[in-house]
């Protein structure tokens, strides 16, 4: 009887082993079946246009922003320009921007009709406007996406330039915090792009200021300390950086992107949630920490600023690349 049971046990073990092997093979085949086609990876679409050379940026501050808040964002923009590269130690904002310029902008600019003698692409601050009172002529503190585009046009961006619309924390924008923290669009006829970024401090910090705020969903790891001491504005810089990368590499929806042109993955949005090496869902990655403040960051900026910038999709490796 014991011999029969032993044979039965061996037979069951063999069947289980064979089944497990089949499952592993099946899983591997499924992985192979769903492996991304290289043709579907983020790439340049022939005939598309990018923004390059000197890119003038016009700003509209919509709602109440303190001088300190404006300074954090303006210093980030200044950190992108060639003139400030020497002011910040690596890893730096300028290094992050240089990666965009070299991988995305230069290849297109040097093959275009006016690509001869192409210089480094620079973001230059052109002008700033403010509408903080919601008074006569204002659109109020609840905006549609069409109104965002109209506000961008009031800054009168120059051809090849970008209008930046920043909304304060008490301004509601269509879709804000419901899958949208910012956006970029364009006026193809005028040859300009625009970016909107909202302050998420009170409306949606868990969606639009992570990892400087407890996430609204997913793993509940402790939030990181914001490098400039303002969760909302530090979150705005992260979102601005992502939209800026998309606006220059895919301004009119026909240049660098992956997937559908109606909902494209772009230079940064293809790497959502990644800020440092070893990142995974709910963990921003291995970052630098300021010994004095305990703040987390991955890029040095102008005037001693520190920022947390999103990873960029590296076209040469087809992987997300971080500064640290």
From TrEMBL:
Keywords: Apoplast, Secreted, Signal. GO terms for cellular component: apoplast. Its main location: secreted. The keyword Signal applies. It is found in: Secreted, Extracellular space, Apoplast. Residues 1-26 form the signal peptide. Belongs to the EXORDIUM family. This is Protein EXORDIUM. It comes from Lolium multiflorum (Italian ryegrass).
